[in-house]
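WP5 quarterly update. Target: DUF6249 domain-containing protein. Source organism: Nibrella viscosa. Length: 118 aa.
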Amino acid sequence: MSLQEQYGLQGTFVILAIAFGIYLLMKPFTTYLLRRRLIELGQWNDQANRSLTEERNSLIENLKWGLILLFTGIGLIVVEFLPYSFNSSLPYGVISVFTAIGFLVYYLIVRNNTKSST
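Structure tokens (predicted):
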């Protein structure tokens, strides 16, 4: 029995979870390095502080990840009901399409929000 037959999509999601965990660990560190470099160059001001703080606390950022996770979950549910073989790449395509739809919905919401605020 091959690894693909034994683990299927679970292996893919474990790898994605590990990659996301690494991202979550590296993001504060890279923000710290950026902040330190700006201070060293004398470019640190209230605007730089505000932009780094806003990036962290943005409600739109939370909306983005909520929509992406929602649509990825919908894609996983749809894959569960589709007939496919272990050698098929159909599940990856369906999940990718639903994730992309989540990004598009987020983009449309942000675009409409910026149009209405200007």
